[in-house]
Specification:
Blueprint (H helix, E strand, L loop, with lengths): L9 E2 L23 E2 L14 E8 L4 E7 L5 E2 L1 E4 L3 H5 L6 E4 L3 E6 L2 E8 L2 E11 L3 E8 L2 E5 L10 E6 L3 E8 L5 E2 L5 H8 L4 H8 L8 H13 L5
Antiparallel strand pairs: 1-2, 3-4, 3-8, 5-10, 6-7, 8-9, 9-10, 10-11, 11-14, 12-13, 14-15
Helix pairs in contact: 2-3
Length: 234
């Protein structure tokens, strides 16, 4: 399979929890299950304590402008927010929050997040769109949870954080123009994706040979979209 997937940036979807108010910290490229891709990082501009001004579309059809955490991992259950810039600057004040079921989408400069709806059912997740084009790719990643150790193991607190449990739980979702979202299944990945991208023989061959795996979704979708936008493929 020819290399036709532009890889000029690094977004490692391993980091702080979804409600973290800190700007995501860079992770070494050697970290497991990292993802390289072209991505617009303008959402990092003009942030206040890791919060950025976002355009929120509510389930009531109304648009709101609030300050939300800059979190490319996505959100589950609740979306923290400050109502205005003044509140965001008073960082010691805890943010308010809204149920993600009341949020349709979030636009924050170059970052776009959308509530995942599969077959008409809300999944209580705001996932981040990593690839746009004939096929869109969305991701939600649940970071590993801290492991709490018994008293006296580490540090002075009654209970101490001793590490992180497991690897991040990454979920991928695809959408073709005019169609609904589809969840990528980890166990039947090659078979499902070979069917989904069956019009691109190069992608199908790479899937059948094991050259593309679950963690390679960004590469896969970018390559397929390039195939679909070639003049000969129209």
């Amino acid at each position: 399979m020819n290399v036709r997937f532009p890889l000029v940036g690094l977004l490692c979807l391993v980091g702080a929890g979804q409600a973290s108010a800190q700007q995501p910290a860079p992770v070494a490229s050697a970290a497991p299950d990292s993802v390289k891709l072209e991505i617009d990082t303008s959402y990092l501009d003009n942030n206040i304590h890791g919060f950025g001004k976002a355009e929120i579309l509510g389930s009531d059809g109304k648009t709101h402008f609030v300050w939300v955490p800059i979190e490319p991992l996505g959100f589950s259950k609740y979306l923290p927010f400050y109502r205005n810039e003044a509140e965001a600057r008073r960082f010691h004040r805890a943010p308010s929050s809204i149920d993600v079921d009341k949020v349709v989408s979030v636009k924050l400069n170059g970052l776009y997040q959308e509530h995942i709806v599969l077959k008409g059912k809300r999944k209580h997740l705001l996932a981040t769109r990593l690839v746009n084009g004939p096929v869109e790719l969305f991701n939600y990643t649940e970071a590993p949870q801290p492991v709490v150790g018994p008293p006296g193991v580490v540090g002075p607190s009654a209970w101490s954080i001793t590490g992180l449990s497991g690897l991040p739980d990454r979920q991928w979702f695809l959408r073709r123009t005019g169609q609904g979202l589809v969840k990528v299944e980890r166990m039947s990945f090659a078979t499902q994706m070979a069917t989904y991208f069956q019009d691109d023989p190069e992608v199908v061959a790479a899937l059948n040979s094991g050259k593309l795996n679950y963690r390679d979704m960004v590469k896969l979708v970018q390559g397929y979209n390039e195939f679909r936008t070639r003049p000969a493929a129209r």
